[in-house]
Amino acid sequence: MLFEFDPDQRLWQGSVREVVAKECPPALVRAVADDGADTVALWKVYAGLGWTELTDPAEAVELAIVLEELGRATDPTPYLATMTQFAPLAPGAGEPERTGAAVLDGVTARRDGRGWVLEGTARHVLDGDRADRLAVVTGEGVFVVDAAEVTATRAAVFDPVLHVADVAFGGVRVGQEQRTGADPGRARHIALAGMAMTMVGACRRILDLTLEHVRTRHQFGAPIGSFQAVQHKAADMHVAVERAKALAYFAALTIAADDPRRRVAAAMAKAAAGECQSLVVRHGLQLFGAMGFTWENDLQFALKRALAGEQLLGGAAEHRALIAKECHAVEL
Amino acid sequence: MQLSFDAEVEDFRAEFAAFLDEHLPPAAEADRASQSSSDVPEWARRWQRLQFDHGWLLPGNPPEYGGRDATLVQQYVHLLELSRRRIYHSFNPQGVGIVAASLLSFGTEEQKRRWAVPILRAEITASLGMSEPGAGSDLASLRTRAVLDGDHFVVNGQKVWTSGAHDADVLLTFVRTDPDAPKHKGISVLLIPTATPGVTRRPFASIIGSHDVDFNEVFFEDVRVPAANLVGPLNEGWRVANGSLGHERTLLWLSFGERLDEFIRDFEPAGPLDEDAYATAVLDAYALRLLGSAALAQAARGEQDVAGLSVLKLLGSEAAQRALERALSSAGPDGLAHPALTAPYTHLQSETMLGSWFERYARSFAGTIAGGTSEIQRTIVAERVLGLPRR
Q1: Would residue B248 show up in a list of annotated catalytic residues for this protein?
Q2: What is the CATH number of domain A100-178?
Q3: Residues of chain B contacting A214 with CB distance shorter than 8 Å
Q4: Most buried pick, A95, A237, B273, B334, via CB within 10 A?
Q5: What are the required cofactors (chain A) (predicted)?
């Protein structure tokens, strides 16, 4: 195989970058973190550009390109949850201007007359407190529920821009028409690849900020980026980002092609993203020195987004365990 | 982005596969194994010549030089197919891949006829004389001198780490021809037949074991070399070095991919810690292939990114080393076996790469040291890819 963007994809990446630079600048992320600024307007920009319509798995690479850039910008909207967690579980849900989240476990469905009753509390639901709709995975199938039907409580988390919530289902009645028929296993591949791509974007941002810092920060009469101890850490960060990025796009490509390797590729993407953030967060924060250890420095946003990604949908070690069991040759 | 090659590339691969199926020399023909990187047994010479004659030795070359004008992507699948089957197309890899390639790029027509074709046809073998005791990572500081005296150069000095020199017929030797020029500017390249009076080769064993003899010290004492053996213009040797090694570098990462593939096929994880390390190697192997193929596609468009290749070397060589260390550790007391007793004999591959985990681990340092150490690669990535300031 030959692994590079085709001209259309390069063009797409360029236009996505332009939009993100203009519409989701660091100042906006800072305003969300410090003042709780509203993100609805930004969401409407994405929807207006058609980005929320990229739900056909055949467009997984184009979606991945958006996610990488949004990961880089620490996107404060529910785009990741809507596009990579809700949408794959709710194919044909329509209404691309509405947000969504996914409830992956903790909820049971009990048969009741013609429908079901959903019970239980799901923890750590990404954007569970602000999504318009929820796709709920149960033993009886996947149901789409309006957010007004549940009680969601946003949890306090270390990433100040991330929304994570506990979502309680106190006997929510659902009917057959709310059952989606989606395969949660396949949906999970998209969720994993999406989270990996987000982490790769965040890690690229950490690297960019770190490079800028070591080029301009002088000590001992020289930019610290001219010291080999610093240079070599930066080089390792770059290698880690390139490695994770390649595997994240490979996962997107297997999803787009509905290739049988998609399951392992998604696990590889998430594992590599986890390994990447481990090194990039560690070296990035270290190279920034005390200046990175402040609330004031924007480094914190990308850094926390990368770290938060590792906590969700299984960490690197969990995915490596699956890879070791299923991979016995390089099939490329 | 695409998951498969275009049909014309797959056709090319199928044609090569059919050639291999029909012509691979059977094990019974292979009466002797290669002992060094310039020692090519008779049966392996016939095998290399057969590939040359059918245009499969270096498919990117024109037919008169053992190829078929293949594209870069076709050359890639050719190497993938060899790697998949664990086949060496030549047991004189530097002779074919670097020495002959340099001659085809920089040599005269006479040099191509007299030296390159015989090397490619395995009539003679060649080694590469670059490193010196005082010129390793800082190759341009080399001091072996060549002084023009009439129609001959007179060479004095010493090379070291010259793989296979004791079995080679000729050495492609980097020498200083202008001691007054800045160090990158005064270097030239000479073909020095090893039978020339004044050439002394002293092979020495590697860390693998006293039986593993590939490296040489090569001493030159008033060695008279015909001026016609100058490769490329006088004092332009640095350009030849970059050109000949540059070609090699585009696909060098594949060899680390092979080491990783072999590990993935051969290592059987014995518990969760093994499995964890195994999975990391799988990630490394996939990422290397993906990034390597992206670099290849870029090079095929004529946008070779030489500094970017350092990322591949760094990733591949260090990943292989980490994996092999784990495999050795996991082997327990069985891992103690003497390397001379462990390599399975597979006639079509340099079997040293398939020896004990100790041997494979120890050899992995060739990847992190030769061809620019990992430290040099990191500096290249930092300064030339990431744009950090130089000291």
Answers
A1: yes
A2: 2.40.110.10
A3: 388
A4: A237
A5: FAD
